[in-house]
Design goal:
By secondary structure, this protein is of the alpha/beta class. It has a single domain, classed as Thiamin diphosphate (ThDP)-binding fold, Pyr/PP domains (Rossmann fold, 3-Layer(aba) Sandwich), CATH 3.40.50.970. 32% of the residues lie in helices and 15% in strands. The protein contains 9 helices and 8 strands. Helix 8 links the parallel strand 7 and strand 8. Bound molecules: iron/sulfur cluster. The site of iron/sulfur cluster (SF4) has 12 residues, from loops. Keywords: Iron, Iron-sulfur, Magnesium, Metal-binding, Oxidoreductase, Thiamine pyrophosphate.
Amino acid sequence: KDFRNSVKPNWCPGCGDFSVQAAIQRAAANVGYEPSELAIISGIGCSGRISGYINSYGFHGIHGRALPIAQGLKMANKDLKVIASGGDGDGFAIGMGHTIHAIRRNIDITYVVMDNQIYGLTKGQTSPRSAAGFITKSTPGGAIEPSLKPLEVALTAGATFVAQGFSTDIKELTAMIEAGLNHKGFSFINVFSPCVTYNKVNTYDWFKENLTKLADIEGYDSSNREMAMQTVMRHEGLVTGVIYQDTETTSYQDKIKGYSELPLTDIDISLSEDQFDQLIKEFM
Ligand code: SF4
C-alpha cells in the first residue's frame, strides 16, 4: 500500500512534521489499510497541512475542529479508518474542549498531535505547551502561565490509549501509531515535533537530552493507569512510548445498538415528494 502522493510538503527543511507524516504512512500500510479506507482530518497550523500530503481521503478543517469533523465522519461511516491530526495550539488551545470530550467519549479514532510548543504558522507565538518563561513575540517578558500537561489531562479524562513519540525516532513512532490504529477506542498520541524555525529552546538536541523511553524503565506496565500517571509526573511529561492502554473498556460505537450493522452512509434516506412535504409540515 502506498500512502505517498505527489504533493511536496512546504514545511521548513528539518521540521519535525515530515517524520510524523512518514510514520502515519508507514503505520497505515503496516496495519493493512487501503488508501481508500483511510481519512485524515486536520485542523489549522503548519501541521494541519498533513491531510493534503497523504494518499488517502483528507479534509483540512478549521482551527481546533479536527476532532468534531473526524468523530462525525466515523459515526457516519463505520468502515472508514479515521485519523485526526493537528498542532498543540490547535488541539490544546482553541480545540481543548473537543479534545477532552473526544477522549472521554472513547470514540474509535486516532488523534495525532504534532507538539512543537509554539505557534509556527503565525510566525512564533507562545502556545499552551510553551514553558513558563518562554520568550516569544507574544510574551517578550517570558510566558507567565505554566505549560499545559496533555498526558495528565488525557489520563484524567479517562483515555484508553495514551502514547507519546519523538519525531526523530520514526521506528518507535510508527509502532505507537500502529498500536493506536489497532486500538478499539480513542487513541491519543502526542508527538514532540520540533519547530526548527521559531522554537530555539525545545530543539532536537534538547529532546535527546531530556527524553526517557518507557522501554528503558524496568517494570513499567502500560496497563496500570496509576503507574502511568506517576511516571509521567515524575518525568515531567518527558517520556516516549505507549504510556497507557486499556483494552477492556468498550468504545463509544460499540455501545450503540445497530452501529456495527451498516454504515449510515449506506442507508437509503431518500424521501418521496409526499414524504418530504409531510416532514416539512411536521416542522411548520
Ligand atoms: Fe515546521 Fe516551524 Fe516551519 Fe511550521 S514554522 S513548518 S512548525 S519548522
